[in-house]
Write a structure and sequence with these properties.
alpha+beta, 3 helices
Length: 161
């Protein structure tokens, strides 16, 4: 988790890129925010509803940016809608990946929230360690992020100056 000093608050600026005035064409980028919410070494992970794309798979919560919306604004809106939590701050993008044959560009950012999350739009939520995340059937890009998270954690644990 990034330190509080490196996080962007609602009074700071964040990366925009909320352009999705297209209908999923590959030449049009749709920016997505994925919230990395960590508490005591455990990460919040959410199960997608079965009727949606990647239904039944687990993901980091978040969603598409609306036109002109920043990552912070999207995180505030999406996490309120999905989990009934208040976003306190977000960090910089720690992992960005395009989603294969779609126009989605997914941006994983550390997010500090207030209150306990409730699964308003997801089938279930769980708190898992980085290693335990990989035991779940994750959405493809979320799998790649979880792998990088495990690698980063193992490198941090093995380095003791």
């Amino acid at each position: 988790m990034k330190t509080r000093e490196s996080m962007v608050t609602s009074s700071g600026s964040t990366d925009t890129g909320g352009k999705h005035d297209c209908t999923g064409a590959r030449d049009c980028e749709i920016t997505v925010v994925a919230a990395v919410i960590e508490r005591a070494g455990l990460y919040l992970i959410c199960q997608r509803p079965v009727h949606k794309r990647h239904g039944g798979l687990w993901e980091f919560p978040g969603g598409k940016l609306e036109p002109g919306e920043s990552l912070l604004e999207a995180a505030i809106r999406e996490l309120r809608e999905e989990l009934a939590v208040k976003v306190l701050s977000i960090g910089p993008v720690r992992f960005r990946k395009s989603d294969g044959d779609t126009a989605f560009s997914i941006n994983f950012v550390d997010v500090a929230v207030e209150s306990e999350p409730e699964p308003l739009e997801h089938s279930a939520i769980q708190w898992r360690s980085a290693e335990q995340l990989l035991q779940l059937p994750l959405a493809p890009i979320d799998t790649q992020f979880a792998e990088s998270l495990c690698l980063s954690n193992s490198q941090n644990e093995s380095f003791h100056p």
